[in-house]
Amino acid sequence: MDRYSRQVRFSPLGENGQRQLEGARLAIVGCGALGSFQAASLARAGVGYLRLIDRDYVELNNLQRQWLYDESDAEQALPKAVAAAQQLARLNSSILVEPHVSDLTAANALDLLMDVDLILDGTDNFETRYLINEFAVRESVPWIYGAAVSSYGLVMPVIPGETACFSCLYPEPPSGVQPTCETAGVLNTITAAIGALQSSMALQILSGHPDLVPRRITTVDVWTGHIRQLEQPPRQPDCTVCGMRRFPLLDGSCRAAPISLCGRNAVQIHLNTNTIDLAQLAERLAPLGKVRANEFALRFQVDAYELTVFPDGRAIIKGTTDTGLARSLYARYIGA
């Protein structure tokens, strides 16, 4: 207990709570700005088992806000889950960290998310959050939604059977082109703030105090200083997921899987079911790379990749046959 003595002296947690943290099992989906902060803080706090799930690799531009990585990780292009696990082993050798270089999908969700006490959201797209939500509701596992872009972020806990679920709040994903860290930028202070709020709720749940988790939606803008909390809406009886208990993503009935185009070094992907305003997307992407667009398609070149985006949300990503990387590029630049 000496290692965690300052935490144990916090009476609402105490020695009993610390013991429960040591026996707790946690999954973090996405090891970017939010997930890397969550992993570092909860490893230092003594959570006994961390499962890290991420499909991406460390890049130099990650280091401004992704707390577990350094320049050598970027130089080696290490998978984020692997680089995070290596760093966490140096931070706390008494816990078990299990990295998975994987894209969370319906096909692997059961293997990656089963047998944990809590799921933390460190993702960058709505589709994965809907998938987490379906799994969490179906298996009665709490999860904590978090998002941050620019100087703004929000947090919401989802406690199946007690609170509204993610689909109650967002029956449909936001329409049109959404801001991302690539197009709107992001301050590392907002990702730290949101990650800290998520981690604090995780400590409450994993130490045996889920009743203390605030049933509120918290929004923070670190640039303006505005902080706002709203009571979560009640569970919606007509919610597809927690009301009707239908799980279309998990059963694969409403998703077009990415397809690697044989012989073309390209992947066809269709994550966004809403119409894309190509002119608006062109304006957002113009500062980031070469853009050509007309009413039929937009072509965007960045680094070694070329994204061709169509008005129905479909895209062809040239320069890779890795469907996980294609999904990451799609989420990064199109914002679905």
Number of individual domains? 2
Main sheet makeup? 8 strands, mixed
What is the strand tally? 14
Classification by helices and strands: alpha/beta
Average pLDDT, rounded to a whole number, is 92
Overall spatial form? globular
Give the SSE order as H and E letters.
HHEHEHHEHEHEEHHHEEEEHEEEEH
- Low-confidence parts: none
Q: What is the annotated CATH architecture of the largest domain?
A: 3-Layer(aba) Sandwich
| CATH level-3 fold name of the largest domain | Rossmann fold
Strand content: 15-25%
Strand order of the largest sheet: 3-2-1-4-5-6-7-8
Q: Considering the protein shown, what is the CATH homologous superfamily of the largest domain?
A: NAD(P)-binding Rossmann-like Domain
Distance between the terminal alpha carbons, to the nearest Å?
44 Å
CATH class type of the largest domain: Alpha Beta
How many helices? The count is: 12
Radius of gyration: 20 Å
Q: What helical percentage do the residues reach?
A: 25-40%
Relevant terms:
single chain, 336 residues, alpha/beta, TATA-Binding Protein
Explain how this protein is built.
The chain has 336 residues and is of the alpha/beta class. The chain has two domains: 2-231, NAD(P)-binding Rossmann-like Domain (Rossmann fold); 256-333, TATA-Binding Protein (2-Layer Sandwich), CATH 3.30.310.10. It is built from twelve helices and 14 strands. The strands form two sheets. It has an eight-stranded mixed β-sheet, with helices on both faces. It has a six-stranded antiparallel β-sheet with strand order 9-10-14-13-12-11, covered by helices on one side. It starts with a helix and ends with a helix. The mean pLDDT is 92.
